Amino acid sequence: MLGPPGRSALLLLQLLLGLPGLLPARPPGGDGRPRYEPTWGSLDARPLPAWFDEAKFGVFIHWGVFSVPSFGSEWFWWYWQKEKRAPYVKFMEANYPPGFSYEDFGPLFTAEFFDPNQWADILKASGAKYVVLTSKHHEGFTLWGSKYSWNWNAVDVGPKRDLVAELAMSVRNKTDLHFGLYHSLFEWFNPLFLEDATNVFKTRKFPASKSLPELYEIVTKYQPEIIWSDGNGNAPDTYWNSTGFLAWLYNDSPVRDTVVTNDRWGVGSICTHGGFYTCSDRYNPGHLLPHKWENCMTIDKRSWGYRRNAQLDDYLTIEDLVKQLVETVSCGGNLLMNIGPTHDGRIAVIFEERLRQMGAWLKVNGEAIYGTKPWRAQNDTVTPEVWYTFSPEEGQVNAIFLNWPVSGTLELGEPQAKLGETQVKLVGYKELLKWVALGEKGIVIALPQLTPKQLPCQWGWTLQLIDIN
Q1: Burial class (CB in 10 A: 0-12, 13-18, 19+), 23
Q2: What's the rounded Cα separation, in Å, for the pair 284 and 451?
Q3: Neighbouring C-beta atoms of residue 408, cutoff 10 Å
């Protein structure tokens, strides 16, 4: 595909035609890049780098000290110490000595089985195009040796390893995935944050000495292509100086051209400001949105962090996950699917299996997912569980159907077929399929009679509709 003309070509055209203002105003020290002001008006106008919309599918990894108790939720510390929820209090009383603190879990976060190359292989096999690791959750423990998190980081305590650096290196060396980092703005029990909160955020000790320096540190050190912010602590974006950080990120950081960000930068920014919108956890509206969005969800329905006490039916099945992916992409979103590794650095086999299953499905059906755009209809009006995407380069419509009809025929209410021109293919099957048009709109397709072994894949199938109106 031809890209936009380069700067020199545009400059030549401008000189030849004497056109004013063809190019964005040169910044001071001008290299031709637009400069973004630290205001939402300016920052929100930045185009989202194209790779993100094309990627469609990423893997989220929630890993930290909460992976040690691995009970209930990654919000363990808060539920146990602040809310004093009975199951958490009882769990601690039954299993740990009196006086045991959350900080005592730190040295037990050992990661002895963590093999970043193996993680990279699993991520590659999943078909994901990006990965987002929790560099720091609300507990404040950093998975890198942060200068700003003294004695509460993975290099000083626990694994004694820079987990962010190791995973970043393996992902970049062994895969083509984009590497991203999650970062929590606030920390539940940090005294500086609690002091600022007591002052109704009129003081800014915590962002100035902790969260902002950390953000600059991870961007400079690891050059993540996604900054997935979270945890505003009920403070406004002005307290966090989010717009100041984002202006630096987009103007002067080492990832200024490729980095994408989300919408969690302070009270009032979610679903309104930033790069792509997340709106809420597990956000899946089921209809087209005017702004690029992401559905961040988790394979374990009850927790983002690993839970030793999870039951089999707490995990979404591969059918559930394919359905989430297809619905999300049809409506213009990306799917960010979460796994929680164990304290000793393993991706539990059930998570590995789900990731590999997703990869097997995408190997067959990926052309109906990656790089697609939403079609004029997102789902079919006649047959339920049929979702559409559009492949702009091929000019074809993809109809992904999640249930193979018992009758052997599939009726679609949306496509307008053209007699003698429209072709219908089942992805992974060689021959063209027979079809009959239903008047102005609608088509009935005869599916091939295949044994379970002959099916191109399981869990959902793609029809390519070529030459339809």
Answers
A1: middle
A2: 34
A3: 12
Q: Which two tokens stand for residue 87?
A: 């199951």
With contact defined as beta carbons under 8 Å apart, do 118 and 166 qualify? no
Distance separating alpha carbons of residues 158 and 109, to the nearest angstrom: 5
CB of 279 closer than 8 Å to CB of 333: no
Instruction: Specify whether the CB–CB gap between 222 and 165 falls below 8 A.
Output: yes
User: What is the bridge-based pairing of β-strands 435-437 and 130-136?
Assistant: unpaired
Report yes or no: 337 and 59 within 8 Å, Cβ to Cβ.
Answer: yes
- Over residues 14-26, the pLDDT tens digits come to 433 333 333 333 3
Taking only the tens place, the pLDDT of each residue in 39-84 is 999 999 999 999 999 999 999 999 999 999 999 999 999 999 999 9
Q: Are 317 and 352 in contact (CB under 8 A)?
A: no
273: confidence class by pLDDT, cuts 50, 70, 90: very high
